[in-house]
Amino acid sequence: MENKKELRGWLDNFGLNHPLVIAGPCSAETEAQVLKIAHQLKESDATVLRAGIWKPRTRPGNFEGVGALGLKWLQKAKQETGMLTTTEVANANHVDLALKHDVDILWIGARTTVSPFIVQDIADALKGTDKIVLIKNPVNPDLALWLGAVERFHTADVKNLGVIHRGFSTYEKTRYRNNPEWQIAVDLQNRFPDLPLILDPSHIAGRRDIIFDLCQTALDLNYDGMMVETHYDPDNAWSDAAQQITPETLIQITKDLKIKKETAEGADYNNKLNTLRTQIDVVDHQLIDMMGKRMKVADEIGALKKTKNVAVLQTKRWNEILGKMILQGEEKNLSEEFILRVFKAIHQESINHQEKVING
């Protein structure tokens, strides 16, 4: 897909002086619930009301949405508040029903994005539509698969496109429900800077206490907006209760978020510099995470050496590692001096960890 500036047109047409805010409950539960949340959000910066109508759950037996009935509730909320509406569609039938109920924005879920067959069916159902279509990243960290889904809609003459970054599944336990893997979204943004990029902090976080920090990072990386799950009684929500916030909290978050403002002089430079610095922050966090994992392995090696009464320092192994790292560093344009300093420090920390295990 070529870099198409017209992809950004729908967002610019909103004429907002702040990032786009999409908000609403994880699931539409009752008509009264949808309407109450919509009227509360009308007093916020939210432009679009979101609600899950069909809820694809990881395991059967959980609440899977109210179905098409909920579309009437969204339609009524739109009439009463003037907010735009959006919901997830997972097949051509969903598309047909959403269009009949005048849903303004359709989003493609992470589980759908992984299947080119399903994506193509939905793209065909939307062929030539002027509706806005937002594509969430696939559950697995695969940029090509994400962009492939966007291309299918673009090829189907769907012009109003955007993407939603909702994080990626991982087997390892982390502080996130879905690892953000910011670099993947940054790579997408660098390749297609005119493709609107929205953050879904709710599904990345899995808990409400880090929603703000995720949104701030996204704004520092020049994201165009956020989709935040909101509920007037989040603790008693029928799905994903832990990651939803109240409309009042959303209002406070949008007040506290720092948005880079242009100055009269050097605006382009400052914005680019801040974005690059945030990218460095993301990589630095990844480095710390990887170092932590490396030292956990060192602890295991120390425990194994203790059982066999083996010395901590293995000179031959250390020289082999150092030689390989110097060669790999050269391929990445890193000097031998730098590699030596970094890996000597890592090696010393590894020795400290092993000695602590052995002597402990």
Provide structural commentary:
With 360 residues, the protein is an alpha/beta fold. The chain has two domains: 5-256, TIM Barrel (Alpha-Beta Barrel); 267-359, Chorismate mutase (Chorismate Mutase Domain, subunit A). It has 14 helices and eight strands. It has helices at residues 9-12, 31-41, 69-81, 92-100, 110-113, 116-125, 143-155, 182-191, 201-205, 211-220, 247-256, 267-308, 315-331, 336-359, and strands at residues 20-24, 48-50, 84-88, 105-108, 132-136, 161-165, 197-199, 225-229. An eight-stranded parallel β-barrel has the order 1-2-3-4-5-6-7-8, surrounded by five helices. β3 (84-88), α4 and β4 form a beta-alpha-beta unit. α2 runs parallel beside α3, α6 (116-125) packs parallel to α7 (143-155) and α12 (267-308) crosses α14 (336-359). The longest helix is centred in the C-terminal third of the chain and has 42 residues, at 267-308. The protein is elongated and about 75 Å long. The mean pLDDT is 91.
Portion in helices: 40-55%
Structural class: alpha/beta
Rounded to an integer in angstroms, the radius of gyration calculated over CA atoms is 24 Å
Note the main sheet: 8 strands, parallel, barrel
Percent in strands: 5-15%
What is the CATH class name of the largest domain?
A: Alpha Beta
CATH topology of the largest domain: TIM Barrel
Number of domains: 2
The shape, in one word, is elongated
How would you state the average pLDDT, rounded? 91
Tell me the number of helical segments per DSSP (H or I, 4 or more residues long).
14
Order of strands in the sheet with most strands? 1-2-3-4-5-6-7-8
Oligomerization state of this entry? single chain
Unreliable sequence segments: none
